[in-house]
């Protein structure tokens, strides 16, 4: 499911659910905000990684410390995204069917 599709699905489901409290809605908002922020960070880090690969493939040279830093950024963003998705999945498991 695309991010846009997920948001549309989530918004429609939330609008139909009259039992949700303000605290639950706020928690969902926080998770979605975190998910989008980590998605942007993952995109930026992935772009940097692609630029470095292009430079290396064209015979250029890149400092190993820069490569390590970018790989660390990719890993950090991927981990944060995984945590946000897990929070959403765990919340869905706890909801009544």
In brief:
By secondary structure, the chain is mainly α. 84% of the residues lie in helices and 0% in strands.
Report on the structure:
The chain has 97 residues and is mainly alpha-helical. It has three helices and no strands. The protein has helices at 3-16, 22-57, 64-94. The longest helix has 36 residues, at 22-57. The chain is elongated and about 60 Å long. The two termini are 21 Å apart. The model has no long low-confidence stretch (mean pLDDT 79).
Specify the overall morphology: elongated
N-end to C-end Cα span: 21 Å
Order of helices and strands: HHH
What is the total tally of β strands? 0
Helix content: over 70%
- Count up the helices: 3
Average pLDDT reading: 79
- Percent of residues in beta strands: under 5%
Uncertain segments of ≥5 residues (pLDDT<50)?
Answer: none
Task: Return the structural class.
Answer: mainly alpha
Which terms summarize this structure?
single chain; 97 residues; mainly alpha; elongated
